[in-house]
Amino acid sequence: MVSEISNSSAYAYPIKTIVILVQENRSFDHMLGWFKRLNPEINGVTGSESNPISTSDPSSSRVLFKDNAEYVDPDPGHSIQAIYEQVFGRPWSSNDPDPPQEATMDGFVQNAEGTQKGMAEAVMRGFRPEAVPVYKELALEFAICDRWFSAVPASTQPNRLFVHSATAHGATSNDTTKLIQEGQKFVKEVYEALRASPQWNEMLLVITYDEHGGFYDHVPTPTTGVPSPDDIVGPDPYYFKFDRLGVRVPTFFISPWIEPGTVIHGPSGPYPTSEYEHSSIPATVKTIFNLKEFLTKRDAWAGTFECVLTRKTPRTDCPVTLPEPRKMRHTEAKETAKLSEFQQELVQMAAVLNGDYKKKIYPHKLVDNMTVAEAVKYVDSAYKKFCDQCQKAKEKGKHESEIVELGQLPDKSKSKSFLHKMFSCIVCDN
Fold this sequence. Notes:
29% helix; Phosphoesterase; single chain; Alkaline Phosphatase, subunit A; 2 domains; Alkaline_phosphatase_core_sf; hydrolase activity, acting on ester bonds
């Protein structure tokens, strides 16, 4: 995601391009909690943090938060009901749907053990700075925000929608296990490309995570004073009002206009309850680029982070390259494993490209019993088919702006899934 300035006489910031990189499924403590060892100002962990195995048993044994995180498979829970239990320490129930006033952050272990026996240790681990050298370098050279929350206590897609539009439009569900070294490699590639750009002195790179992925964080999630972006209520059975934030996630601000080793805590406004969250991105874009209107009530409320640009002149000592990521996974990928919910959605998106969305197997039967290896092959094939059709259309004289349509469109009277609606523009089915 890239935002660029238009001509404006009122422009007062040195930034002309904002680049947003959203990573996947990690809490702040999981990725950066132990960075407190690098900089005591960071609101990280000390090693005394723990969660009980059972929140209802006062004598329950507890699992301490440790610094030996590694590859995690399968995923910890991060559905809306799983997050409820992690944050409030009790399972969600339709008989008692309203959350408590305060977040206890003591249900991560209980939820993990309910997901898979033995998973508690995995969610109560974080990375030593030395294990994630790319992030260590960025933390030392630029800025960390240690109070940035996901916009909604739900999974990937709703939170990514907030990044773009400061609302999830009522969506509360959709994620995947990721190799940390691959994420580090991607960040390294993006940073080095931007650093080599002639526009570097006019750039701000923001790296954040869509949501916490079920991993522990000790900072209580804000549960009051959060406005619904558009008063849309989510579907049953939760009827979520979008008036709570999700768990804290890692966030970096990177620019030659930022002092090394900066730590940004909570915002100073615009409201007493304002926080940094994904809606802070469109809110800050509005501020820096002097745009006229907010998108929703949420970005009007969210804190903005232009305050991180404190220098009067750009730095000339920003690193040109970042360290090589460390390999953490020492086992082979489980290509015979069944798909996660997010992986299923990726396959269903690919079905829009190759025309399979018209078939009766779409959306659910298409992905039932599909393995990871089969999904990779399917998505690659669908993308290739779509690109081939685009090339053939160009060869026949079609303008590159025209939409390539694979096959006949489905009956518009039939109900459509959220994904179909979301990607309807691809097939021009309005």
